[in-house]
């Protein structure tokens, strides 16, 4: 595992305007390259905007589309994690996150947990993913999550059990709940990411978008968390930002030696008890 300089790219996508958003991504990633970053992380649905509804088929990209090919080529200079709407050859649509590295699309994650509560209605327009898989990168083993995925504790747990040392979460989280001078959503997300990092002794990169769609404001607040659970860096709320963080391999090594939680995790007990619960609930 090597040290990593990551760029958290907090931007404001234009709803339904893929080419404009791709140009914005290209420009921001170029700035990250110029400043020596090795990884650029962009938000959920950065190429399309979030509240797409019936626009989903119009903005969806196949994995052989010119836009995906362009990002592959750009990744010869920097690894890239970015969100978009994917269309499969049989016309299924997914909220997907792609990891590009070395001129290739090396991993694709389809959002598993599609929220249908409050102001969310993703499952009406999009299909659900059906797996969580860690994958190898130039910086060690990584797990990708998309927003709501991270609120289901089994998701980051599975990725950590699959060997991920860095969890990357792409998000389009609206800002809600102001109290005692802090945005409730911001507090909730920081509590979640810091607790996840601490209990799984993983590095966590969280990148959220900003801007407004249909009167809903996205709060930004992208951040990186060390494996100790301490906040390493945070972007401003509600404004576009390019935020850099240096992640040292030595910090991960030190934390896993001092807190060997994953070493002591008994995956077989977990599997056995889950199978028992499933049997009992299926009766």
- Lateral arrangement of strands in the main beta sheet: 5-4-3-2-1-16
Flag low-confidence runs: none
Largest sheet: number of strands, sense, barrel closure: 6 strands, mixed
Q: Could you give the distance between the termini?
A: 46 Å
What class do helices, strands and sheet pairing give? alpha/beta
The portion of residues forming beta strands comes to 25-35%
The helix content, as a percent range, equals 25-40%
Structure description:
A six-stranded mixed sheet has the order 5-4-3-2-1-16. A six-stranded mixed sheet has the order 6-7-8-11-14-15, covered by helices on one side. A two-stranded antiparallel sheet has the order 9-10. The protein contains eight helices and 16 strands. With 283 residues, it is an alpha/beta fold. Helices cover 30% and strands 29% of the residues. The longest helix has 17 residues, at 18-34. It has one domain (4-281): Nitrilase/N-carbamoyl-D-aminoacid amidohydrolase (4-Layer Sandwich), CATH 3.60.110.10.
SSE layout:
Elements: E1 4-10, H1 18-34, E2 39-41, H2 56-59, H3 66-74, E3 79-87, E4 93-101, E5 104-110, E6 135-137, E7 140-146, H4 154-161, E8 166-171, E9 178-179, E10 182-183, H5 184-200, E11 203-208, E12 210-213, E13 216-219, E14 223-225, E15 231-234, E16 241-247, H6 249-258, H7 261-264, H8 267-281
Parallel strand pairs: 1-2, 2-3, 7-8, 8-11
Antiparallel strand pairs: 1-16, 3-4, 4-5, 6-7, 9-10, 11-14, 12-13, 14-15
In short:
This protein has 283 residues and is an alpha/beta fold.
């Amino acid at each position: 595992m090597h040290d990593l300089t990551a760029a958290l790219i907090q931007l404001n996508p234009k709803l339904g305007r893929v080419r404009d958003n791709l140009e914005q991504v290209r420009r921001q990633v170029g700035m990250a390259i110029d400043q020596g970053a090795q990884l650029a992380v962009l938000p959920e649905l950065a190429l399309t905007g979030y509240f797409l509804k019936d626009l989903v088929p119009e903005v969806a990209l196949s994995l052989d589309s010119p836009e995906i090919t362009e990002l592959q080529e750009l990744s010869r200079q920097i690894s890239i994690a970015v969100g978009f709407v994917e269309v499969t050859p049989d016309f299924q649509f997914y909220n997907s996150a792609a990891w590009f590295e070395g001129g290739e699309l090396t991993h694709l994650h389809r959002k598993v947990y599609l929220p249908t509560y409050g102001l969310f209605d993703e499952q009406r327009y999009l299909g659900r993913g059906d797996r969580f898989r860690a994958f190898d990168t130039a910086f060690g083993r990584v797990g990708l999550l998309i927003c709501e995925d991270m609120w289901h504790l089994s998701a980051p747990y599975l990725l950590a059990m699959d060997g991920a040392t860095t969890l990357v979460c792409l998000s389009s989280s609206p800002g809600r709940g102001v109290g005692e001078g802090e945005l409730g959503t911001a507090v909730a997300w920081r509590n979640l990411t810091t607790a996840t990092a601490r209990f799984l002794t993983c590095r966590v990169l969280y990148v959220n978008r900003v801007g407004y769609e249909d009167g809903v404001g996205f709060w930004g607040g992208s951040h990186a968390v060390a494996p100790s659970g301490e906040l390493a860096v945070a972007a401003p709320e509600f404004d576009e930002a390019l935020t850099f963080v240096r992640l040292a391999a030595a910090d991960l090594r030190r934390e896993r030696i001092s807190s060997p939680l994953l070493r002591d995790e008994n995956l077989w007990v977990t599997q056995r008890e889950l199978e028992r619960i499933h049997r009992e609930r299926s009766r």
